[in-house]
Structure formats: C-alpha cells, structure tokens
Amino acid sequence: MLINLFKLKHWHLLAVLFLFLLSNAAQAQTISVQGKWRFKIDANDEGLKAKWFNIVLPETINLPGSMNENFKGEDITLKTKWTGSIYDSSYFYNPSLAKYRQANNIKIPFWLTPNKYYTGAAWYQKDIQIPTDWNGKRMVLSLEYPHSETRVWIDDVEIGSQYTFVVAQNFELPANLKPGKHTITLQIDNRIKAINVGQDSHSLTDHTQGNWNGVVGKMFIQAGSPIYFEDIQVYPDLKRKVAKVKIQLKAGQNISSTGNITLSATSFNTKEIINVKALTKAYSITNGNGSLEIELPMGGKIVTWDEFDPALYRLRASLVSKDGKKDERQVQFGMREFKAVGRSFHVNGRPVFLRGTANNCEFPLTGYPSMDVESWLRIFKISKAHGLNHMRFHSWCPPEAAFIAADLIGFYLQPEGPSWANHGTSIGNGKPIDQFIYDETNRMTKNYGNYASFCMMAYGNEPSGRQVEYLTKFNDYWKAKDSRRLYTGASVGGSWPVIPNNEFMVRAGARGLDWGRKPESISTYAKQISQFTVPFVAHEMGQYCVYPNFKEIKKYTGAYKAKNFELFEEDLKDHNMGDQAESFLMASGKLQALCYKNEIEKALRTPNYNGYQLLSLNDYPGQGTALIGVLDAFWDEKGYITAKEFKRFSNSTVPLIEVPKFVYTSDENFEPKIEIAHWGKAPIDAKITARLIDETGKVVFTFKWGPRTLPVGEITQIGSLKYSSNPITKSRKLKLEVAIDGTEFANDWDFWFFPPSLPEVKTDVYYTTDLDDKARAVLNSGGKVFLNAAGKVIKGKEVVQTFLPVFWNTSWFKMRPPHTLGFVVDPKNPAFAEFPTSYHSDMQWWEIVNRTQVMNLEDFPKGFKPIVQPIDTWFLNRRLAMIFEAKVGNGKLIVSSANLSSDLKGMPSAQQLYYSLQKYMVSDQFNPKFNVDFNVVKDIFETPSKQKFETFTKDSPDELKPKPNSN
C-alpha cells in the first residue's frame, strides 16, 4: 500500500500487486494448514490417556472454523449447560411458552441459538509435509485464534500448550524435525477451568460470540532464520521528530551472534510519500537473547495520524549476522500522541471528544470475530458514517485485522483484557485470573502496541473483588511500562469504586435523561463529573430498547439462528397483534432515536465532558436479547433513522440549542439560545443560519450570524433568536434547523405551538371519571361517553409507562420499569385532526404519556386496535391501550387512561388533545368499528390482568445488586 487507497483509486491495482508480491515472498517459506482436518470430540476426557495424538482421528472438520459451523457438537435441549448467566429463568416454567420447550421446537429467548453446542476438549489432526530446504531453519506453527486452550503435538511429541483470548498462538517446532511427512494434533478445550475470566465476559460468553471450539483466522507453518526479531516496538516522539525503536532479538539453541540491523521507514495512506533515511546499528546476542534501542530520525517533515488524517508509516527492520543469516520484519505505526491534558483528551496536541460505541463481539453469521481487514473496515466506516470516532471492546480484544483497519480509517480504539471478573470470579483475591490479566494485556501490547489506533486500555469490565488495590497497581504497572496509550483500571457502572490513579474515567453516573421532568435542553452532567480531574467518558450510554425487527430473521443463514426473534414473533401473533410488528418497530425506533439524540446533545453541551461510549450502535443479541441499537446485529439500518440523520447530532461539530421546553402556547416567548460544540480538525470561521420550517417544508423564519470563530475543543455561544407565532387559532409544529453554511454540520429540533385558549365545544358527550350507572344508561340510550380513567386502571396496573422506553431489556433486569416502548397512533385518524402528531412518541406527548397508566385489553375482541396503543415489552406482548373507542350497548365510548379534560392548566398538549377528541366525538366521523360489552370495559377497572410476569431466579445482574465491596 503506497498511497491512500480510499482517495486515489487509480493506485488500487498497484497496491494489490505490491501486497501480492510480498505475500508470495512469504509463501515461499510458509505452509498453509487450512483446509480439511481429522477430528474427534473428547466429551469424556479420555483422549490424553488414550494418546489420541497417536491414532488417526475418525471424523473430519474444516478449519479455519468452529465446531458449531461444522455442525459438530450436541443438539440444543433444555438441559444444555450454557456458559453465560441466565437471570430470568421464567422461560423454563412459563405455561404460555411450553410449546417452545418441546424437543422439536426449542426456542430460547436469552440469546441467539447455535446450530450445535459443545464445551470441553476436542481433537484436530492434520498431516503436513516439511520441505527438505527447511533443514536448519526455525519453524513455527501459527494459529491466529484458537478458542481457547490449545495443546499441540508433532507426531507423538508434545511441543507446547497455550491459553489466550487475545493473540495468535505460536508453537515452535523441534529444531531436529526431519523433512518429510509429519502429523500435527491439536487438543482444544473451551471450558472455564482454573483461570476464570467470568462466564459473561465477551471473550467467551453465549451472550455474544458464543463459547465456541475451533480455530479461525490465519493458520500456517513458517520457516525462518534461527536468528530473528522477537519483538519490535515503536515509540513516536512528535516533539523531537524521532521514532524510538525497541528491539528484542532471539537466537535458537541459546547461541550468540553479532551483526547489523538496518531500519528504514516509508509513509503510506498519504497523498505524498515520505521516505525516512535508513539507519544501521550493530547488534549483539548472548546466550540466545539480545536487545537494543535505536532512535530513528523521521526527517524534517513528518505526517501524523488521527481521525482526520490517518497517515501511517511502514518500518522495515533488516538483520544480517556476520555469518550471513538474515531476518526481516515490517511494522506498521503512526506518529501519534494520545494524552490526557488536565480534564481533556489531546491527540497530537489537539483536543478530541470521543464519540464511541461498545463493540460486544456480535458476529451472528459465525459466532466468532471477523478475522479479515475488509470486514472491520466496513464496521468502522459505518461507525464513522454515524459520526463516531471511537470504539470500546467490552471485555475482549479484537484480532489484528481490527487494528489494521482502524489505523487505515482513523479510529480510536479501547481494547480490554478478556474479562468481566464477576459472576463466579473476582480480581485481587489471589486467584489465577490476577496474573492472567497481566499476561493477556502484555500479549496485547506486544502484538498490537505499534498500531496508532490502540489509544486506550482497561483490564476489562465491572469487576468484583479487591478491585481498588488490584487496579491501582495495574495502572501503575502500565503507566511505567508503555506511555503510548492511556489506562483506566476498568470500564464500570456508577456504583463501582473510583480507581484513584486512572488516567481517564469510563463510568456511568453521568448519563441518562431526566424525563420524569419536562424535557429541556439546558441541563448538563457537570455536577456528576465535578469530582474528576481526568478526562471523563460515559460508560455504556443509552441502552434504549426498540421492538424486534422480525424481517431480520432471514439474515441468520450461518452458525446461529434467531430463535429468540422467532419466539417473540409467534408470541405477538398469539396475542393477535402479528400485523403490527412493523409499526411497533418503527414507532419504538423513532422514540429510541429521540432519546439518543437528546442524551448525546446533553453530553456535548457539558463542560469538561470528554466522550461517550454507547451500548451500543448495533444490537446486542444476548442478555435476554437487548435491542438497543439503531443498527441490527449485522450493522445494517433498521429503517427509522439513517446514518446521515444520526450524524447531525453525533459529529465532530454539532449545533446545539438551549430551550426550557419543546411545547409552547403562542403567547409565550420562544427564544432558543444557539451554541456549537466544535471538536474538528481546525478552528472554523463559521457563518450560521437558523431556520424555522413548517410541516409543508415552508421556511417561516430565518436568522443569521457570523462569521464567528469556532475554536477546537470548545462550546461556542452564538446567540439567541426570537420568534413569535402569536396569534394562532390552530396548533402547529415547526422545525428549527441550525446549520453552518457551506458545511455538512447541521442539526434540528421539533417544537409545538398551541393556542393559549380553546373555544368551547358544544357537545352532548357525558364526561365522567367513573364508568358509573349514568354512563351505562347514556350508552344504553345511544349516547356518547368520554371516560377519563386516569388512576383507575386495575387490569394493566402492573405495566409501568414513562416517556422513556425499556432500558436494556425487561428480562435481564427482571421487569424493572419502564415496561413500554412508546406507542403507535394513526396520524390520519380524525381523532387527531386538531392535534399535530406523527405515528410515534414525540415531545408534545410527554405531559400526556409520562407516568400515565395503561390498560390491558386482554379480553377485547380479536383485531381490536386502540386510538393510542402503548407498545409492550416483547417478552410479554400484552395488548395495551391508553386511549380507545368502542361501541358499547347502543352508544359510543372513548376511554382514556391519560388525564384529559378542558381544565388542565399548564398542560397545553393535554388540553389540545382533549379538544381534538371532543371535536371528533361530535362529528359524523365518530363511528367506532368494534362492539365491546359494557362489563368487559368495566372489568379493566375491577380485575387484575390474567397474564403476569414471574421470575424463578434469585440471582440478578450487577446493576440490581448492592454496591460491590471495594475491598
């Protein structure tokens, strides 16, 4: 790769040819061991004693691949011994789910269902041919990603064992191995044994990639010089324009050697190629080991790496010993400094705001991470298209391909040790995991430490144990050893103890929306982060659920099937709402997007707030099925928000507003304050335009500022605009758009304006707050009744509705409220002729919806649809209503569990909706479709729901447990 492949496409052919020649040179000394292997499952742990490395294994399997992909293992049953935690065991007992527990119809709701499942030892075997010209060379078997503990035999000689989740496993073959035919035998064991990183760690849990057995990625035997580069680490020094290169050398059989090493470097992924002058230094190896440090001057002109200009260098290191032995290594690196300066992150001296997402190791086609660069480029490109520049890897470390791709595209990474040391394990208590974390993070930095994108690191996720003592020492160790990145002990929730020497904080506590109060855009998280003196990044921001997208089911054509989605879809049909799945998805999606927009904007307007990590941009298929992404598990859009729309409020530069509310009466002052958060490449001399646009697309008001200088790393106050819509007699919705002229940077918000007073509606409707005898008499006589049932609901009382949607999911959190996902309405329904609404929740509904009871219509006629229908959690799929109409007796009835009347001071939305319903009830269009018996309606206020949620598990997720002991 000699040039930026993304920008100058005519160089693509040259780059591919260059890589082909390099790979051919490597292949001259390489034997691939991919393909068909012999295979046998060792469920009874008899293979070692029986010396299976000495027999011909009877089955076959294709590698790279997993047992699951090859349909090896056990069928899924109710007795399958899963690795991950199951906190909601109601699936095993709930009578309504009995049909999904049948042997021929097992459908589990906890996570995706693998074709086959197996934990234990399995044996893999392949014959190889060692060339005659390899005599005297060092030979290494390299397996990029076995999962997880591997023992290796050549013929009947065991040559080693390794256990790691983070790097390739390399096994040196015996030096006296003769040319000709030999047999490689692997024993791979994916059980949790003495080293327990945590059964829910994303490095191995069923909740994400799955606890698979096999080998993926590159698989080969390579022959090379017996004198070789063991390790090369490059430490950029931008101020001095040098690269300090630390080299570890090895020589087989503990021999000694002297000679020369030559270093040179060439830039790539840049418009202009920069060649760094070569430098030669002498080396010395004694008793098989040697080391040296070389400062390589990078020249007067250097190119630096960041999200805007991901310039890279390729270092070439050549070794020539005095007796003619040679070795060569190429190392990719960037001239990059990622520092904490006070409470801010700085990249190459410029402030940066981390707009990130957690990667939870969701790869639904394979069940293991993608091992190729192109797949990771796709993930990072999609993330960048949504305005993001950062990715955290929750309790796992991605393969080398991810670092290569992130380097190429300019993306900041926070890989973690492969541990969520909770749920059966802990740190700091003298368990084997304590040393394993150091071993794994050392392997990570040795193999991936040169990649410019490797900017941050943590031990892993939310531990238990003596964590303060352990993680403080962990931070000290890494800060002293490697200054190329920043360290935080762990990524944690808000109740975890603070590790005092963190270089940055990844914590909850300063996230979420306080929509128990009227939505606004003034409040910040300043108070919640005031105690910290280092950069703060929000941990697992968002987690707003959306209804399942059942169209996604057909995508699961690989090693996993979405049986959980199938269960939820069938259950929705069983509740007579199968035809509403798409509307539930779209309406809940719009609410989810509204929540993400407001939370991200709140973070951006908070001084000294330095980033957020969503959990996550795409769905998480485990932990009860957590549909919290605006993208599905395949990183595809779901249809309710595009990348371009999301990027408007999640970008390097984002216009913001300050308003105390989003709903006004026309006699109130509407004076939004405009500000811009700018974290771009350089200051901008900006001209800013604000427009108010009505629902027809007509611009009704324009205001301009500028030019204004927007410094990097600051929130710049632009000014206020004043607009009056008074007088109006009909409610209206206006969109405020603020844009920086001539750029992509723009953002928008919707506002609603209602008349300050409404005319009286002459009506014969009987308004009541109780379905009393008079209401029954009116209905029997053919009259009309409006029932304000606020606070009176019994059937549905257990369903908690707020304006916010379900958090994470109601299964994992054991039905922690809220339980709903917004609502659906038909905006064309004449009931809303005087009330502007779309088909989903929006700000004008807040005062109507928040903390309002919902009604469970479990006994209503099949096909009955309310006027306003809250969307239930997909684990229960109850048919809910907030407003419905029906023919009852000879009359017509509207029932509202929301408090609606003409006498609601300070609640213009509720007043306006009631007015619209009144006008509807006196019109000829008021003609309910369904007949419902009076007693069925009355039963809503007398009898509890038949369908109830019960859990049979005493354990609970961390967030519901008492605060962990810091000792």
From TrEMBL:
GO terms for cellular component: beta-galactosidase complex. Residues 32-215 form the Glycosyl hydrolases family 2 sugar binding domain. Keywords: Glycosidase, Hydrolase, Signal. Residues 228-336 form the Glycoside hydrolase family 2 immunoglobulin-like beta-sandwich domain. Its EC number is 3.2.1.23. GO terms for molecular function: beta-galactosidase activity. Residues 1-28 form the signal peptide. It catalyses: Hydrolysis of terminal non-reducing beta-D-galactose residues in beta-D-galactosides. InterPro entries: Bact_Beta-galactosidase, Beta-gal/glucu_dom_sf, Galactose-bd-like_sf, GH, Glyco_hydro_2_N, Ig-like_fold, Ig-like_GH2. One of its GO terms (biological process) is lactose catabolic process. Belongs to the glycosyl hydrolase 2 family. PANTHER family: BETA-GALACTOSIDASE. This is beta-galactosidase.
